Amino acid sequence: EGKLHIKHELVDLSRAIDHVVDIVAPLAKKEVSIERVFDPRTPMVVADFSRMVQIMYNLLGNSLKFTKSGYVRVSVGPANPTGCSVLITVEDTGIGIPADKM
């Protein structure tokens, strides 16, 4: 209905990731570890904290859902040497996506 309101606030991605990992930790099977890799050079970003948490929750939740053993890792760091953008990746040892489905 065009009523989505995005806040523009200064977001500490380390805090956002810690928050999401705390929420999804109960979803992890005991054979799965949740790893956080946070580069201390990562700048604060202007974003909507709640939306960032929601996106990361969806990504980590899906990874945990399809990972029977191994790890789910979320990494955050500068995307380039200037530090004007960030890169967030979620990686896991789950079943993956078949090449014909990508």
From TrEMBL:
It catalyses: ATP + protein L-histidine = ADP + protein N-phospho-L-histidine. The keyword Transmembrane helix does not apply. One of its GO terms (molecular function) is histidine phosphotransfer kinase activity. Gene3D superfamilies: Histidine kinase-like ATPase, C-terminal domain (3.30.565.10). It comes from the Eukaryota. It holds the Pfam family HATPase_c. Keywords: Kinase, Transferase. Its EC number is 2.7.13.3. Residues 1-102 form the Histidine kinase domain. InterPro entries: HATPase_C_sf, HATPase_dom, His_kinase_dom. The keyword Transcription does not apply. One of its GO terms (cellular component) is plasma membrane. Signal peptide: none annotated. This is histidine kinase.
